[in-house]
C-alpha cells in the first residue's frame, strides 16, 4: 500500500519545501514525486535543488528548470499570457546568475516525462503536458484536456503541475478506459490568495479512490466526493511556513517587488 506525496513548482523556495517535506513525513508518506520547476522566482534555487537531490526525489523537467539550465537567450523564454515579461525575465536573469554549474547540470539532466507503477497502476509524470513543458492547461480548456487524454491512454494516473492550480479530474470512455489527472498546486509560489505551500498525498489503498477536495482552488470550485474501484485516495494539503522570511530575503536580493508580494499573499503575479 503506502502513501506518495506529489509536489510541484517549488520555484527556489526552500522554506516552503522543507515545510512540505516535514508535513508529508508526519502524514506517513513513504515516497515522493516532483512535477518540475525546482527553480526561478525564489531566493534558494541551489538549496532547493540540493534538497531534492538529498531526498532522492524523482523529478521531471519544468519550463523554468529548462530556462535556467540551458543557455538560450532570455527573450526566448515563453511566459504565460498576461504576465509581465520584464518581471519574468528579471527573475530568470537573477536565478541564472545565482545558480551554480552543478545546479544547472542537474536541471539539464531532468527527463521531460517519467513513467512509473504503484500497486499495479500505471502513472505518467509531466510538468505541463506530455508534448511540452510550456503548454498551459487551464481547468476550463476542454479541447486541451481531451488532447491530454488522447496522449495518456493506457495510464491510470497522470501527474502534472505548471498552472499552480490544485486540481483533480477523471476522464475516459469505454474504449480507452479512465485516467485520473492530478495537479497538486505549487509548493513555492501558490496562488488563490493563500500563501501556504500546496501539495497532494496519494494513498494506494487498492480498493477505492476518494476525492477529498476537487477542482481549482483559485476558481473556488466546490468540493466533490466520488468513488471508483481500484483507485488511489487523494488528499490536498496546505502547509504554513515562514513566508515573510522568504519574502524579506527576496527583497534584500533585489528580486521584483511584485514577486515578493506574491510570496506574502499567495497571488500569482
Structure, described:
This protein is of the alpha/beta class. It has a single domain (3-264), classed as Purple Acid Phosphatase, chain A, domain 2 (4-Layer Sandwich). It is 30% helix and 21% strand. It is built from eight helices and eleven strands. The chain has helices at residues 14-26, 45-54, 63-69, 85-98, 101-108, 142-151, 243-252, 257-265; strands at 3-7, 31-34, 114-118, 121-125, 157-159, 167-173, 177-183, 197-203, 208-210, 227-229, 233-239. Helix 1 (14-26) links the parallel strand 1 (3-7) and strand 2 (31-34). The termini are far apart.
What's the structural blueprint in terms of helices and strands?
Elements: E1 3-7, H1 14-26, E2 31-34, H2 45-54, H3 63-69, H4 85-98, H5 101-108, E3 114-118, E4 121-125, H6 142-151, E5 157-159, E6 167-173, E7 177-183, E8 197-203, E9 208-210, E10 227-229, E11 233-239, H7 243-252, H8 257-265
Helix pairs in contact: 3-4, 3-5, 7-8
Q: In a few lines, what is going on in this structure?
A:
Helices cover 30% and strands 21% of the residues. The chain is of the alpha/beta class and 269 residues long. The strands form 3 sheets. The protein has a 5-stranded mixed sheet with strand order 3-4-5-7-6, with no helix packed on it. A 4-stranded mixed sheet has the order 2-1-8-11.
Amino acid at each position: 500500500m503506502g502513501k506518495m506525496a506529489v509536489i510541484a513548482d517549488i520555484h527556489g523556495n526552500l522554506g516552503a519545501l522543507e515545510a512540505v517535506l516535514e508535513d508529508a513525513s508526519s502524514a506517513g508518506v513513504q515516497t515522493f514525486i516532483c512535477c518540475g520547476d525546482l527553480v526561478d522566482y525564489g531566493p534558494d534555487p541551489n538549496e532547493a535543488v540540493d534538497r531534492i537531490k538529498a531526498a532522492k526525489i524523482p523529478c521531471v523537467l519544468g519550463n523554468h528548470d529548462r530556462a535556467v539550465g540551458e543557455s538560450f537567450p532570455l527573450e526566448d523564454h515563453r511566459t504565460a499570457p498576461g504576465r509581465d515579461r520584464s518581471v519574468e525575465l528579471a527573475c530568470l536573469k537573477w536565478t541564472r546568475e545565482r545558480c551554480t554549474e552543478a545546479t544547472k547540470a542537474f536541471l539539464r539532466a531532468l527527463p521531460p516525462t517519467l513513467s512509473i507503477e504503484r500497486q499495479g497502476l500505471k502513472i505518467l509524470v509531466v510538468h505541463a503536458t506530455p508534448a511540452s513543458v510550456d503548454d498551459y492547461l487551464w481547468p476550463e480548456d476542454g479541447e486541451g484536456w481531451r488532447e491530454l487524454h488522447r496522449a495518456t491512454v493506457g495510464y491510470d494516473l497522470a501527474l502534472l503541475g505548471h498552472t499552480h492550480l490544485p486540481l483533480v479530474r477523471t476522464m475516459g470512455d469505454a474504449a480507452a478506459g479512465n485516467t485520473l489527472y492530478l495537479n497538486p498546486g505549487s509548493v513555492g509560489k501558490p496562488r488563490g490568495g493563500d500563501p501556504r505551500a500546496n501539495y497532494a498525498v496519494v494513498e494506494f489503498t487498492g480498493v477505492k479512490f476518494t476525492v477529498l477536495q476537487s477542482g481549482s482552488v483559485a476558481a473556488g470550485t466546490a468540493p466533490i466526493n466520488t468513488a471508483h474501484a481500484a483507485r488511489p485516495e487523494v488528499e490536498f494539503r496546505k502547509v504554513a511556513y515562514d513566508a515573510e522570511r522568504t519574502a524579506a530575503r527576496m527583497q534584500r536580493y533585489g528580486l521584483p517587488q511584485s514577486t515578493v508580494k506574491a510570496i506574502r499573499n499567495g497571488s500569482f503575479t
